[in-house]
Amino acid sequence: MSQKKGETGQLADGGVTVIAEIGVNHNGSLESAQRLVDACSDAGADLAKFQTFRASDLASVDAPLADYQKTSSGSRGQRDLLASLELSQEQFLELRDYCHERNIGFLTTAHDFTSAEFVMDLKSDFIKVPSGDLTNLPFLQLVGRQGAPVLLSTGASDLAEVGEAINVLESAGLARSHLTIMQCTTEYPAPASEANLLAMVEMGKRWGVAIGFSDHTAGDTAAIAAVALGATVLEKHITLDRSMTGPDHAASLEPSEFSRLVASVRRVRELRGESEKAVTPSEEKNRDVVRKSIVASRRIRTGDLLHDGNLGVTRPGTGVSPMRWPEVVGTRAHRGYLPGEMIELI
User: Fold this and answer.
1) What kind and span of H or E run contains 93?
2) CB burial of residue 39 (10 Å; 0-12, 13-18, 19+)
3) Cα–Cα distance, 29 to 35 (Å, whole number)
4) Which of 13, 29, 160, 180 is the most exposed place for a label (fewest CB within 10 A)?
5) CA distances from 292 to 243, 325, 326 (A)
6) What is the pLDDT, as a whole number, of residue 69?
7) Topology of 17-272 in CATH?
8) Are 214 and 153 in contact (CB under 8 A)?
9) Given this model, what pLDDT does residue 10 score?
10) Three-state DSSP class for 52?
């Protein structure tokens, strides 16, 4: 993998875990899935992520399609669509091994209980709770019992529902330090006006947990902004071609775009720095150059009273700081000064 992770799944250097969400953008093809893994690895992502499900267990026969699913497929119903996107457990094992070959982490989200048993046995860096299971108490209990780091996606939920989900996970045994709350908007692509990145920040403060962003907006602006606001995990869909038929392609980045996103995210994390305000090493050499000192603004003789009329402030800042102005004004000059000469305190 591109960066080393610690015991909780977070990057050991305090950076950002970038998840390239392949999801179902392989359109049911193992070959396409492997090509997408290649793209994820080449882009510098930390994890390539899929979705594991059995269509017959995930959706009833009469489950309707969401609007975004209707416009991107010719399926008659949700189960029909899901069946066309399903990969077998054997294929997921091949993909896990292929990710290892390509030096990128493997992650997949379980969407039903049968798939969950398989996925949790894979012992990936995280267990991802999809937004659709935020109110699935038995599923949350199962996840909480695993003792593994959890990404809790919060699409289409309110604050109270998120709090209830956290309580269930903790009651089942999950340590809060192992939880990352993922802000998410369940629409593909999601309107930028509904990204609600400040809700991500608020949830982190409210529950004292790590925060992340599962980005379904078009482009990369929201993702970069989320990292600037403190997201430690970023999830973004990737596709080989955004014009392909399928439910998630329109909300995805193509490989070259994803590469630029990863580079921007790494740069933003560097720019974000630390919370403590301090003089940086590069500033040390410039500090005295740009700061100022108290100087004589005109000729001053020994014993003259120092006052606003014969004192001034100019660069450099190697003399008495102007912050000590009250200490200087009202004293007598212990020696003579030429205009521009730095005043000395004794």
Assistant:
1) helix 89-101
2) buried
3) 10
4) 160
5) 60, 12, 16
6) 75
7) TIM Barrel (3.20.20)
8) yes
9) 46
10) strand
The kind and range of the H/E element at 233 are strand 233-237
> Which amino acid, one-letter code, is at 53?
F
Q: Which tokens is 153 given?
A: 């996606």
Q: What is the pLDDT of residue 13?
A: 44
CB-side neighbour CA atoms (13 Å) of 274: 7
Helix (H, G, I), strand (E, B) or coil at 296: strand
Angle of helix 30-43 relative to helix 89-101, nearest 10 degrees, comes to: 30
Q: Which tokens hold the place of 230?
A: 């403190």
> What CA–CA distance (Å, rounded) separates 228 from 289?
31
In this structure, what is the dihedral angle of CA atoms 106, 118, 54, 27, given to the nearest 10 degrees?
20
Q: Which residues of the chain have pLDDT under 50?
A: 1-13
DSSP state letter for 25: T
- pLDDT for 7: 39
SS3 content of the chain, % helix, strand, coil (to 5): 40, 20, 40
And the tokens for 294? Answer: 């108290």
Round to whole Å and give the CA distance between 140 and 137: 5
Helices 197-207 and 159-171 pack at an angle, to 10 degrees, of 40
CB–CB of 15/230 below 8 Å? no
Sign of CA dihedral 250, 219, 9, 212: negative
Give the amino acid at 187: E
Token pair for residue 10? 């977070």
Q: Indicate left, alpha or beta for 103 from its phi (over 0: left) and psi (-120 to 50: alpha).
A: left
Task: Report the distance separating Cα 233 and Cα 251, nearest Å.
Answer: 18
Domain positions in the chain: 17-272, 281-328
Q: What is the DSSP letter of 190?
A: B
| Residue 219 Rama label (left phi>0; alpha psi -120 to 50; beta) | left
